[in-house]
Amino acid sequence: MKIYFITDEKNRVIPMCDWDETINPHESWLIGEIDGHSYEEHAIPLWKYENGRCVRRTPEEVQADIDEIPVPEPTPAEILRADVDFLLMLVDEEATL
After folding, report:
1. Residue 70 phi, psi dihedral angles, 5° rounding
2. Exposed/middle/buried for 85, CB within 10 Å: 0-12, 13-18, 19+?
3. Average predicted confidence (pLDDT) for the chain
4. Which residue, 22, 45, 66, 75, could crosslink 12 as a Cys pair with Cβ 3.0–4.6 Å?
């Protein structure tokens, strides 16, 4: 599929829209071809711009980006639920002694 795209700081392909000769692209947009999805399930780009064309990123490159996704801090409700579960476990252990 032919697309208009830009690249980010890691040279990953960020699609702007499908190519169409009626579109007047922004001057910073490039034209390239990709085969398949643009992103994986974590919204990580699957393509990079290399040597003047779009090439699929390696599984290791994609995984490195996934590994950089920060783990969200637990919400107050999640912390409270964990505390309650811990206390219930302690009560249950005392009851079995």
Report:
1. -70, 140
2. exposed
3. 93
4. 45
Q: Which long-range contacts (CB under 8 A, 24 or more apart) does 48-52 make?
A: 48/7, 48/10, 48/11, 48/12, 48/13, 49/5, 49/7, 49/11, 49/12, 49/13, 50/11
**What region, left, alpha or beta, does residue 21 occupy, with left being phi > 0 and alpha being psi -120 to 50 degrees?**
alpha
Over residues 43-61, the pLDDT tens digits come to 999 999 999 999 999 999 9
Calculate ∠ Cα 88-94-97, nearest 5°.
145
Q: Write out the E strands in 26-72.
A: 30-33, 47-50, 53-56
Place of tokens 């990709």: 34
Predicted TM-score (pTM) of the model is: 0.72
What residue segments make up the domains of the chain, in order of their start? 2-70
CA atoms of 43 and 89, how far apart (whole Å): 38
